[in-house]
Design goal:
Number of strands: 16
Bound molecules: iron/sulfur cluster
CATH superfamily of the largest domain: LarA, N-terminal domain
Mean pLDDT: 92
Strand content: 15-25%
Number of helices: 13
Distance between the termini: 59 Å
CATH topology of the largest domain: Rossmann fold
Low-confidence stretches: none
Shape: globular
Largest sheet: 8 strands, mixed
Strand order of the largest sheet: 4-3-2-7-10-11-1-12
Length: about 350
């Protein structure tokens, strides 16, 4: 039923959505009861799902309830938050510690995991060992915007499955190819998307937009292609999609038969991105910035814009500026060669605001 399809369920109840999408996918019918099943939500930061940043815990609870009723009991939840936050904290803040207790499902902090060097057709990448040891991987992203990659959904959510050192390397050497390569090596058995109220502009949330949509699919490229259209983006705005197609990860060919609605939509609307993210990006000169660092800077510039403070013409950020002598201003320890910079790895938004206000 799922091949070349995206199942859509419209509604406000993540728990119900998790159960219905699992049932409708039918994918579990070929799984063994002894399989170790891993759920990989998006807990990139320690913020509740209502912020638009993270996967609703009730969605995962619905998925777990369904699996346990069917007789699958070897289930874990695995995640590695971004560099700059701690997964352990995200598990607590986002409600996953409670789920772990209620359903007796262990939490695996991938920031503390060992990793294995894996070979893709374009290079070698380290992936967390616990992810590689799973028999089944259910990828559970949030549909939301992203300042550096345009959007984040199925393909990019797997970035939480690699060590922090590797996340930094991805940003340093080029995020787009690395995301495509990661998906060539690591495939999900099922993708269940939480598009209830993701933030259309920022990965770290703060500006949730209610879409009341949950989706299931096997093909991460197909899902991300549709996700682009929901965000008002072209696939060319998200370069890792084309790179993933080139590697044979999936297909970006949406057709009239792709979408299969399981119920009627409740006032479905498109999650159009605001012009805010684009306006802020125009003030940033970025070379290989880590997500958390870039996010701190965008949050700071957003705050300054809301307070009607003048924005600097350009702020430099990222690992590509390491050891470079610049006039500044710069953000993060990588910019220590600037005449003046905000220290931190990553710095906090308030530190950046204070610094820029006093420049
Ligand atoms: S200072 Fe450099 S290494 Fe540290 S978070 Fe920022 S970009 Fe990454």
């Amino acid at each position: 039923m799922l091949k070349n399809k995206i199942l859509c369920w419209y509604g406000k109840d993540p728990f119900e959505a998790g159960q219905i999408l699992m049932e409708s996918s039918g994918i579990w019918e070929n799984w063994s009861f002894s399989d170790h099943i891993g759920l990989k939500p998006n807990l990139v930061v320690s913020k509740k799902a209502s912020s638009g940043a993270t996967t609703h815990p009730e969605f995962c609870a619905g998925i777990i309830t369904f699996l346990q009723k069917k007789g699958f009991h070897n289930i874990s939840i695995l995640e590695g938050s971004w560099v700059g936050d701690r997964t352990e904290r995200a598990f607590k803040v986002c409600g996953y510690s409670d789920i772990s207790k209620k359903y007796s499902v262990p939490l695996v902090d991938l920031q503390q995991d060992t990793s294995v060097l894996c070979e893709g057709s374009k290079g070698e990448y380290r992936i967390c060992q616990s992810i590689l040891e799973l028999d089944r991987l259910i990828n559970i992203p949030v549909l939301k915007g992203h300042c550096q990659t345009g959007m984040t959904c199925a393909l990019k959510n797997l970035k939480g499955c690699i060590p922090d050192s590797e996340k930094k390397r991805y940003h340093r050497e080029g995020l787009f190819q690395a995301i495509a390569d990661l998906n060539e090596i690591l495939q999900s058995d099922l993708i269940l998307v939480d598009a209830l109220e993701g933030d259309p502009d920022f990965e770290e949330g703060g500006n949730p937009f209610t879409l009341n949509l949950f989706m299931a699919a096997l093909d991460p490229v197909l899902l991300d292609t549709y996700a682009c259209s929901l965000l008002g983006l072209k696939t060319s705005d998200v370069p890792y999609i084309k790179k993933a197609v080139a590697l044979g990860v999936g297909s970006s060919a949406l057709s009239a038969d792709t979408l299969h609605a399981l119920n009627k939509g409740e006032g479905l609307d498109n999650l159009q991105q605001s012009s805010l993210a684009a306006a802020i990006s125009g003030h940033i000169n970025e070379k290989g910035a880590c997500s958390a660092c870039f996010s701190s800077l965008t949050q700071a510039l957003k705050q300054m814009q809301e307070e009607r403070l003048p924005l600097p013409e350009t702020v430099c950020i990222g690992q590509g500026f390491k050891k470079k002598t610049l006039d500044g201003p710069g953000v993060g320890d990588c910019l220590s060669g600037c005449s003046s910079f905000v220290p931190g790895c990553p710095p906090e938004p308030y530190q950046i605001v204070n610094y820029l206000k006093n420049k």
